[in-house]
Amino acid sequence: MNRIGKIQEFLKVTPNDNFMRHALALEYIKAGDDAKARDEFEAILTASPDYVGSYYHLAKLLERNDETDLAVQWYKKGMDVALDGGDNHAYNELRAAYEELIY
Fold it and tell me: Which of 5, 20, 78, 82 is the most exposed place for a label (fewest CB within 10 A)?
């Protein structure tokens, strides 16, 4: 069984495990399936908007797919969440990616 299959099996037992869902989305990216990765990231952030790590990866995916305006929106949302949660490291990473994109 490949990594995607293993993660999917794990998620059958713990479907709301955001760490594993995030890992699944990253595996979809590695497999070249940006659509499934995007769906997973968006589902994570809809259910758990405080899961700050997914903002960066979703925005990068959108940026890579020439959806710049949407990527900017997700970077901004992620920066707000990071600030609210006191996560300066995540904030700085999101801000750097955001600034690189818009400037």
Answer: 5
- Please name the fold of domain 3-102: 1.25.40
Please determine, for residue 1, whether its predicted confidence score (pLDDT) is greater than 80. Answer: no
Model pLDDT, residue 65: 98
> Which residue is it, tokens 């995916």?
61
Helix (H, G, I), strand (E, B) or coil at 49: coil
Residues 25, 30, 35, 38, CA torsion sign: positive
Could you give the CA distance from residue 41 to residue 64 in angstroms, rounded to a whole number?
A: 15
Residues 6+ apart with CB under 8 A from 29: 37, 57, 61
Query: Which residues touch 85 (CB under 8 Å, ≥6 apart)?
Result: 50, 52
Q: Average the pLDDT over 13-32 and give the result.
A: 97
User: CB under 8 Å to 79, separation ≥6 — which residues?
Assistant: 91, 94, 95, 98
The full length of the chain comes to 103
DSSP label of 14: -
